Amino acid sequence: MAHKKGQGSSRNGRDSNPQFRGIKLYSGQAVETGGIIVRQVGSKFFAGFNTRMGRDWTVYAVQPGTVRFAGRKVHVDKA
Known about the structure:
four-stranded antiparallel β-sheet, CATH 2.40.50.100
């Protein structure tokens, strides 16, 4: 009988947590101040009116209103 474990058990078992990226609110949906609209890697979408881009490229609202996509820009129209 072996006195040591097999070689696979100690080297496996690591996995990173999911990042949950993507579009969180679509055009026409309501958003509150600070609400995340897009989580992304890199600048696929850019901040437009009443939105800002975080340091991890997250686009979020700075005013409450309605989300609107215009090409690659994300806007929030005031309610």
